[in-house]
Specification:
Elements lengths: L8 H9 L2 H15 L4 H14 L4 H106 L6 H4 L2 H8 L4 H7 L4 H7 L7 E3 L9 H10 L6 E3 L8 H7 L7 E3 L8 H10 L5 E3 L7 H10 L5 E3 L8 H9 L8 E3 L8 H10 L5 E3 L8 H8 L7 E5 L6 H10 L4 E5 L6 H10 L5 E5 L6 H8 L6 E3 L8 H9 L8 E3 L8 H10 L5 E3 L8 H6 L8 E3 L7 H7 L7 E3 L8 H10 L5 E3 L8 H10 L5 E3 L8 H10 L5 E3 L9 H9 L5 E4 L7 H8 L4 E4 L18
Parallel strand pairs: 1-2, 2-3, 3-4, 4-5, 5-6, 6-7, 7-8, 8-9, 9-10, 10-11, 11-12, 12-13, 13-14, 14-15, 15-16, 16-17, 17-18, 18-19, 19-20
Helix pairs in contact: 4-8, 9-10, 10-11, 11-12, 12-13, 13-14, 14-15, 15-16, 16-17, 17-18, 18-19, 19-20, 22-23, 23-24, 24-25, 25-26, 26-27
């Protein structure tokens, strides 16, 4: 076979097929055993013998032998192939182990290198931060020393004018203590104090008293010249300016705001003379602004462009009811460097904004946390989806008076945000499934305002009751809510932390709900059950267990003197609103006031059974009363006002609208006996003359009077007569 290695492959196959090598081996073995004289002849004979006698035993033995050898050869071949496969797998396994160890080693080296680079980067960042902080502190220190020196120079220049003056007790106090007292005064009070004497004038000119200027409360008398003079005098120190409702302001005073380089908070809401040019000038001069309120102004998209260019540190922006703002203006937010750090945004009443505008807001203000979208009838699901697609850090959302939002919008909110406060009103599309999604995605939800949502049911309250952080819940006008829903709230984990609960106009709520509230809501401080027709005196008697209740609103309830007397046992009660409670009489007020002597607010407007005796009891027992509203109590006379003014030394607000028996004596009683009176309503008092009412006007901050006859239909509420 060795000589056949180089032979033709066909020949080798023939040899192997017919087992010629084995045959020759057998013949050679036979020769070796027999040792014939003529080997060739011996082989020929034996071959012929085998051919002639095929049935011989030797033939079959030879066949078995050949078959056995073939079988052994095949088995050997299989074992060799299996051994080769095992060897290949073993080599691959060893290679894989080596490769894995090599990869692990290099990954470890790579991670070590990354950690070293991160440490180096952090150390460089910290060094740069500390260096910048040191430089900033040095500048702040120099600036502070400059301001102190400037203030000392002012005081020294004024000290020569105070010699021989200032003998009153306030002037003799140390400077720090005097400044502490004057810091509690408003702009108008400071200006009046400056006219008392030279000592007080020197104190009022200290610039630290003018860091926060609130002209809003003085809008009825403040002039453009006064505002400009104060801003120019203290422009270096001013950090906050509130000009809300100051309609008299002109270009000259508004221009002075731009000179306040350290201004951080600016409120120009309800200022009719504010326009784009003024805002642009202010923004270019005040680069440190953090909070801007431009609500109810006539600004346009030009102002938004200026905001995006100048306000790099702005955190809060109020554009409520700026109806000239459109999507084009909001697009400017994405192009400029400003407003990208906004966390609070109010776009209420901006009816020109569509889904594209909200998409621009989302692109520019991705870190928004609070957004208010009240009174937007054009607000749709697409608008909300565009907003929350990128604003995933929202925690406060308000969509009051947005009737076209559906479950699609609310579920989109639930998918990407975790809210702490949610407000919705006047929506008849939000269903139980939306509340379920919101409560699951926002376990830290603490305030929920769901007023006038008729699809809110007991199942909705079941999901709300599972919240552990909920402490403020308003479901007024949800007509499907029953005692079962209130039980879900009182039996849930939120009952212990509940502080404010409004169930107004929930007509299916009964005395059983008040019982559960009094048993479980230990921290409740404000409760409103207005126009809950199924409540009776028995239910109000349960409330005497609410030891922390401070404010209670029972407007329109069918409460009698018995129930009112039970409410008097709530010693923590400070405010009671009982408008249109027709069954309350003077005796009920007397018993109530005898027990609740620390009452501060009483609103019994349109309680037609009350007379002067009720006010006599109120003034005698409740010495700390500060607000009294008796609008529509037509039995009240001047005697009732006399009782209130003589004993009510802390009286600050009085509403006597619709009391037609009052005469000119009423304003005189108020002027003589109420030094702290700040607000007076005398609408529809036909027996109080205009001359007498005008005498009172200069003694109060808020004043309103008319001698017309009361309206024939409807009722006058305190909310309708706010200024």
């Amino acid at each position: 076979m060795t000589s056949l290695q180089d032979a033709d492959s066909t020949l080798r196959a023939y040899f192997i097929k017919h087992s010629l090598p084995q045959i020759y081996k057998a013949l050679l073995a036979g020769l070796c055993v027999s040792c014939p004289e003529d080997p060739l002849h011996f082989i020929e004979e034996k071959i012929l013998e085998i051919l002639e006698n095929r049935d011989l035993e030797i033939y079959w033995a030879w066949k078995r032998y050949i078959l056995k050898r073939k079988t052994e050869a095949a088995r050997l071949l299989e074992r060799m192939e299996e051994a080769e496969r095992y060897h290949t797998r073993r080599k691959m396994r060893l290679s894989l182990l080596k490769w894995t160890a090599w990869v692990r080693y290099h990954k470890q080296n790579q991670n070590d290198a990354v950690e070293k680079l991160q440490k180096v980067q952090k150390s460089v960042y910290c060094r740069n931060t500390i260096t910048a902080w040191r430089l900033t502190m040095q500048d702040a220190k120099r600036l502070k020393e400059y301001f102190k020196k400037l203030e000392r120079d002012i005081q020294k220049s004024l000290s020569s004018e105070i010699q021989g003056d200032g003998q009153d007790r306030l002037s003799l106090l140390p400077n720090k203590l005097s400044l502490k007292i004057f810091q509690n005064l408003g702009v108008g009070d400071l200006l009046r104090c400056a006219q008392v004497c030279r000592s007080w004038k020197a104190i009022t000119q200290v610039s630290s008293l003018w860091t926060e200027m609130n002209f809003s409360s003085e809008s009825c008398w403040i002039t453009d010249e006064t505002v400009g003079r104060l801003l120019r005098a203290h422009r270096v120190y001013v950090t906050s300016v509130n000009l809300c409702g100051c309609a008299v302001l002109q270009w000259s005073s508004l221009r002075c705001i731009s000179q306040c380089k350290n201004l951080q908070e600016l409120n120009l809401s309800e200022c009719p003379n504010v326009n784009d040019e003024i805002i642009k000038m202010i923004l270019e001069g005040c680069h440190s602004l953090l909070h801007i309120n431009l609500a109810f102004t006539d600004i346009t998209n030009t102002t938004i462009q200026a905001l995006s260019r100048c306000c790099l540190t702005l955190r809060s922006l109020n554009l409520a009811y700026c109806t000239n703002i459109s999507d084009e203006g909001l697009q400017n937010l994405t192009t400029g460097k400003g407003c990208h750090r906004l966390i609070q945004l109010d776009l209420s009443g901006c009816s020109q904004i569509t889904a594209d505008g909200f998409s621009h807001v989302a692109d520019a203000c991705g870190s928004l946390q609070e957004i208010v979208l009240d009174d937007l009838p054009t607000l749709t699901d697409a608008c909300v989806q565009a907003l929350v697609s990128k604003c995933r850090t929202l925690t406060v959302i308000s969509v009051l008076d947005s009737p076209y939002l559906s479950d699609v919008a609310f579920k989109a909110i639930a998918e990407v945000t975790s809210l702490t406060k949610f407000q919705i009103e006047g929506n008849n599309r939000i269903a139980d499934s939306s509340w379920k999604a919101l409560c699951r995605s926002s376990p830290k939800l603490s305030e929920v305002h769901a007023c006038d949502c008729p699809r809110v049911t007991d199942n909705s309250l079941k999901f709300l009751g599972s919240l552990t952080k909920l402490h403020n819940l308003n479901i007024s006008g949800c007509i499907k809510v029953t005692d079962t829903g209130i039980r879900y709230i009182t039996d849930g984990p939120c009952a212990v932390k509940m502080r404010e609960l409004d169930l107004s106009n929930c007509s299916r709520v009964t005395d059983l709900s008040l019982k559960k509230i009094s048993q479980r809501c230990d921290s409740l401080i404000h409760l409103s059950v207005c126009f809950c027709d199924n409540l009776s005196d028995n239910g109000f008697e349960f409330l005497d267990k609410c030891a922390s209740l401070i404010a209670l609103d029972i407007t329109g309830c069918k409460i009698h003197d018995q129930g009112l007397a039970a409410l008097g046992s709530i010693h923590s009660l400070r405010k009671l609103t009982a408008i249109e409670c027709a069954f309350i009489t003077d005796n009920g007020i007397k018993v109530f006031c005898r027990q609740c002597r620390h009452l501060e607010l009483l609103d019994v407007s349109h309680c037609v059974s009350l007379s002067d005796r009720a006010m006599k009891a109120l003034s005698f027992f409740c010495k700390t009363i500060a607000t009294v509203r008796i609008a529509g109590c037509f039995k009240m006379t001047d005697t009732a006002v006399k009782y209130l003014t003589r004993a009510g030394h802390f009286l600050r607000e009085l509403d006597v609208s619709g009391c037609s028996l009052l005469t000119d004596h009423t304003p005189s009683f108020m002027m003589c006996s109420c030094p702290h009176l700040r607000s007076v309503n005398m609408l529809y008092c036909r027996n109080i003359s205009k001359q007498a009412a005008l005498k009172l006007r200069c003694h109060v901050q808020q004043w309103k009077h008319s001698d017309d006859d009361p309206p024939l239909t409807g009722t006058i509420t305190s909310a309708q007569m706010e200024f």
